Batch of 2 targets.
Target 1
Amino acid sequence: MPEKFKSAFVAVIGRPSAGKSTLINQICGYKLAIVSPVPQTTRNIIRGIKTAAAYQFVFLDTPGLHDSEKAINLKLRDAALQTLSDSDLVLYVVDSTRAPGPEEESIISKLLPFKNKSFIAINKSDAKSSDVAGTKEFLTEKLPGTKQFVISALKCEGIDSVLQALEEAAPEGPAYYPEDIYSDQEPVFRIAEIIREKVFLNTKDELPHAVYVEYTSHHKLDDGSLVYEGNLVTERESQKGILIGAKGSMIRRIREEAEQDLEEVFGYPVRLSLKVKVNANWKKDKQLLKRILG
Ligand SMILES: Nc1nc2c(ncn2[C@@H]2O[C@H](COP(=O)(O)OP(=O)(O)OP(=O)(O)O)[C@@H](O)[C@H]2O)c(=O)[nH]1
Ligand SMILES: [Mg+2]
């Protein structure tokens, strides 16, 4: 380990769909956090660990900040905001394809007390609809002096400069995790997340947000594969029907796509046994929310 090893917890915050999870996956080199075009894909603080010769960063992927008074959204927002004060550095990801509106201003007002440890990543510069100049102008006015970097998380462009700036700003400190570790997530949590990603990618309207994955059990088979049993819990009977699909086609697709990703993530086959259940009130059940959102 070099003499002046640096380490930092880095909170990654921004609006839903800004590209926070995509960025962390690219930096860490693994699919740690699930990604989908549906806003509010991330529901938990996901840690992604990046270790280099001279530093270790623990990135804290957060649920996108979204103004809504619903219990689940308030819990997601509280969790994301808590990471601002808990972390050494903050990386604020801004979507340059969306005109900055009141939601962006609301995030900036929460970021202001942490301005001195913050960096801005203006994301999606590769997209046709990206307005980097307009986004820069807005951010320069609202957060003068805060360093901005133009990146494309998707195309892996501009990320090295962000890492360099974070390294310069990071305090000296020890590695918190062994160097070959890139995630501290329990396998059953990662499995549930990848199943949830496939729900987000294959269903639309309100359905993705109506679903959570309830873990039941898992066991290893003699051939080295893992069997995971769980339920996809929805809020309504009609949603249950959509999730099952004609002759079970939807649930089969979700299962097969998830099994394919899981084998890549774990290096051994994961067989999923999934049922669909209805619990009309899961989003209002405080104890359940505490269990699944942490
Ligand atoms: N064109 C383009 N699309 C991107 C880029 N980064 C992310 N996306 C897309 O934007 C969508 C949202 O990405 P996520 O990484 O899930 O965004 P997030 O900020 O984690 O979203 P939440 O978890 O909902 O808060 C996905 O469809 C990504 O493929 C980028 O650099 N360029
Ligand atoms: Mg996310």
Target 2
Amino acid sequence: MAEKYYISTAIAYTSSKPHIGNTYEAVLADAIARFKRLKGYDVYFQTGTDEHGIKIEEKAKEASISPKDYVDKIYLEIKNTWDLMNVSYDRFVRTTDSNHVGVVQHIFKKMYDQGDIYKGEYKGLYCTPCESFWTKSQLVDGKCPDCSREVSEQVEEAYFFRLSKYQDRLEKYIASHDDFIYPESRKNEMINNFIKPGLEDLCVSRTSVKWGIPVDFDPNHVVYVWLDALTNYITNIGYDVDNESFEFKKRWPADLHLVGKDIIRFHSIYWPCFLWSLGLELPKKIFGHPWLLMNSDKMSKSKGNVLYASSLVEQFGVDAIRYYLLHEIPFNSDGNITYDLIIERINSDLANVLGNLVQRTISMGNKYFAGKITNSKVSEDIDLAFIGSINNLEDVVTNKMDQLHVSDAITEIFNVLRRSNKYIDDTEPWVLAKSEDNKERLQTVLYNLLESIRICGVLLEPFLPDTSKEILSQINISDVSLEYVDNNIYNLCQPQPLFKRIDKIS
Ligand SMILES: [Zn+2]
């Protein structure tokens, strides 16, 4: 039976339309999910929207509509954006969904009944935009450590979760599970900045907020948004407090929670303690990915430097933007996006390296053999290393993907594509074509190139799904095996350009 793989994105907050930086996470998760499917895993990929909280209450008020109408509208924009980007989620979840709401209430009650949640009074420093209470020691220059805005002192009756009870267990768990928080730099940040200074009990209800899940046994309170949001990973696969479904038992624990580096704290500190309180296993890995910057600056509406997937896709196409997002953002540091960089990548990598190789090879196949290529097996030494690199590619790419080095995985595929172009330069098919004696050698050369194109085409599917399909259809091959075979029969179609070169937009 296929091994299961459960991957999630963080659920996107429905306060405003997602910009390309928010979209990056869904595309990154999609590439990982698609790769796992290609490798034969039984993948479950969940994404969705986080729809409660005071920020939404305020936005809806500004727009003079109900919070539900407001989130319905933004939810659709987010879902449409994910669909536009070819994000192959298995389930798109919403925290306003009635099943989720009911299970969150059961979870809150269970934690209360067993003493993990108790009623008290909260005095604290609160950051409204982040909906987070902070302790003095967590502030940076007296301001919110997440958004650098002013915090204000607030008092309210509230329920608390006994986070402090789990301090030792969490510290030991993180120390003994190297893979849990990823990358390493984030793990150290969590331990040193948040866990070592001491975990304080967490306020998990609000009386000042109306737009949230009510605590059913004390309806003046709504459940704190993070307790509501984090549990989406279990409520939507059939978890309930005294009734775990077959699906839940099959899928949980999640294999990977992919989240922005700014919210890794909630996932690596609160979430484990909530799960322990419910007697559940922890997710295997939490990956805090870096951000996408615009001209080296954080995107924000107020700065007016926000790019949206819809307009980028209209200008450049889905796969060009997927390529950019997946290839240009390093694993461990922020990436940058500008129009000039997008155009440069399209022209140099997608049009020159990939597009040219496919078009040149198919054109030569049509010209010299009327599109019918089999392997006449007239090999030369130069073929060996080339075929070796083709045969190695799956392992090399898998290795990078296992480490979540998605950008490097793409680079490896493009290295083989570059090598294929070099193989054309070295073997000079147009010279071979001049003599009838070299016809068989010429056929083997083209055959080797088509094998490279086929394997790269299959391996590109997780990253550039439409392009992958187009490449395989142009060489008329449905075989998805990832090894060089010497007896394929190619019936080539007319080549169509995969990517057009783009002139600079001035
Ligand atoms: Zn803040």
